[in-house]
Amino acid sequence: MNKIKVGFISFAHMHAATYLFSMLKRDDVEVVGIADEDAERVRPYSVERGIPYYADYNELLSQEIDAVVICSENARHAEITKRAAEAGKHVLCEKPLGLSEAEMLEMIRVCKEHDVQLMTAFPCRYLTSVRQAKEAVDAGQIGDILAMKGTNRGTMPGGWFIEREKSGGGAVFDHTVHVMDLMHWFTGSKVEEVYAHAETLFHDTDIDDAGMVHVKFANGVVAVLDPSWSRNRTFPTWGDVTLEIIGTKGVLNIDAFAQKNEVYSDVTGKAAAWSFWGDDMDEGLINSFVESIRNGKPVEVTGEDGYYSARVALAAYESASTKRTVQLKSQA
Amino acid sequence: MNIAILGCGTMGMIYAHNLAKMPGVTVTGVVDINARRAERAAALTGAKAYTDVASLFEQKDLETVAVCLPTYLHKPYVLQIAEKGLHVICEKPAALTLEDAQEMRAACEQHGARLFIGHVVRFFPNYHDAYQQAHSGKIGAPKMAHFKRYGAYPQGMEGWYTDPGKSGGVIMDLMIHDIDYACWLFGEVESVYASVVKRDEPKMDYAQLTLHFKNKAIASLTGYWGYPGPFTTQFEVSGDQGIIRFDSNQVQPLDIQTMGLLRGEGPAVQIPSGSSLHDPYYKELQHFIECIRNGSDPLVSIEDACYAVAIAQAAGQSAQTGQPVMIGGNVS
């Protein structure tokens, strides 16, 4: 069997680790190298597993590989994606796709120009509950969508996530994009108007860690989303992904991490913990990417999807500072 | 305490049920334009039944009147009652507009009558506990909150709930509970943003609104008349050091399943029920009656009730204009 050759560029975003493990599970994938300017950070994943290490990602890009997975700081997505595209490699890029509309459109353009695929890493599309919900909505079980409320509340990640020049924004940027992508996917429509708050409420930091994002879609659907880093230290898990969809014929609720056992441990010292036992969404994402590359079919979550979702977060900041609604142009 | 009940619909019967068993309280009169409904309330309380309020006013020792009329009738009847120098316990919302509510307040003040508005959620043990926990410092400083209140479409007399000119719709009638609670928790509101979805066949009135408080706290509220599931209330209050959550569907201290029980028609207006010795309406009425006896200040003041009406009105205005509404003035 002809193996798909994959390289990893940067483990700044630790999603890279689960993406790597998902790749390593596949017989038809060969991970040919891991590039990261920080050798120590990737030692447990690279040399300790017999995977070649590259200090310079350009060197990795000059190898004979089919695709790269980019999990750098958000601010470097554009530069690395464009280099990879120019080297003829397909790209799976961590979210949010880029820091500005222009930057993201450029990423999409360069990938098209070099005839490589660009996939945005939105693993929530591969949650089993989400896929079942999509099927239920598409089958008309709740009629037409009228309104939605979502949450993607999390724990404050710290590190480069709260350094604006590397992350591009705080909680509103980090956590709007996942559920906004699901909202786009479910409605099949695009956000036209944004009204939002962005505040620093929970932590001693300069960047926003709380917000509330209202959107209106071109098809008239209204929605609201809480992207806050509001889970405290003793909360039994890292956070949540929930989406409630109000339809003309019913109501659907997704609580993506509801499949959990409650663990009360004197050993770990945590009063209560939730042990999630549902399906692995990261594996679903990686499998989809690999299969698209392998079969030469379009990726299921495109660069455009990443763009449409991230631009809502960018508009949210504009709205939060102007205290007015922000209109989005209907085409990319 | 001699008390009369004006309006013997769903709420009037709840008042009748609770007042009938309250020590030191005598229900002396019950009034409804529908004689059969007045008789039903009379049978429960031992009070005299009337079909017009003028006949009630002939009672010599009457001290207090509980107003359980449709919202649009609050002002005209409260003004009449105040003129007689009788104290008033009035169902929420106080009135359909801030102006009307203030007129009621002024009339009662002028005639030396007390006026209480039944924001019963403050008397629900779960909400009351959350308020106390939130203010105990256990979750640090409260910073964000979510509130959800879903139920069937209420079936009032001659469909008065469906007429926004009579009930004010889902925001003014249902969500005002959570608006009042959120303001109790966070204080003065800086701005309100709301989206509303209304439909006929089947009838629904759904709203999602965000309150941004002067202390920067954010509250997200959803309310739904026409929800196909069981009556549901949920809340989450998140502070910088902890989280308090409640979900009515997760709290079931008693569960009884019986064989072959046929599902009958639901009640006209859904009221949450629970396993407590006294329902929250009992606590609320007892508290208001104590305030009348002692001349003490109530847990929820007429100023609070006026403020909640003002915020609900602002939310309605925001839903109409599509823009946030800035709130002026102060909580007195």
TrEMBL record, chain A:
Residues 130-252 form the GFO/IDH/MocA-like oxidoreductase domain. InterPro entries: Gfo/Idh/MocA-like_OxRdtase_N, Gfo/Idh/MocA_Oxidoreductases, GFO_IDH_MocA-like_dom, NAD(P)-bd_dom_sf. Residues 16-121 form the Gfo/Idh/MocA-like oxidoreductase N-terminal domain. GO terms for molecular function: nucleotide binding. SUPFAM superfamilies: Glyceraldehyde-3-phosphate dehydrogenase-like, C-terminal domain (SSF55347), NAD(P)-binding Rossmann-fold domains (SSF51735). Pfam families: GFO_IDH_MocA, GFO_IDH_MocA_C3. It comes from the Bacteria. Transmembrane segments: none annotated. This is Dehydrogenase. It comes from Paenibacillus solani.
From TrEMBL, chain B:
Signal peptide: none annotated. GO terms for molecular function: nucleotide binding. Residues 1-119 form the Gfo/Idh/MocA-like oxidoreductase N-terminal domain. InterPro entries: Gfo/Idh/MocA-like_OxRdtase_C (IPR004104), Gfo/Idh/MocA-like_OxRdtase_N (IPR000683), Gfo/Idh/MocA_Oxidoreductases (IPR051450), NAD(P)-bd_dom_sf (IPR036291). Gene3D superfamilies: Dihydrodipicolinate Reductase, domain 2, NAD(P)-binding Rossmann-like Domain. Residues 136-327 form the Gfo/Idh/MocA-like oxidoreductase C-terminal domain. Pfam families: GFO_IDH_MocA, GFO_IDH_MocA_C. PANTHER family: BILIVERDIN REDUCTASE A. Belongs to the Gfo/Idh/MocA family. This is Oxidoreductase.
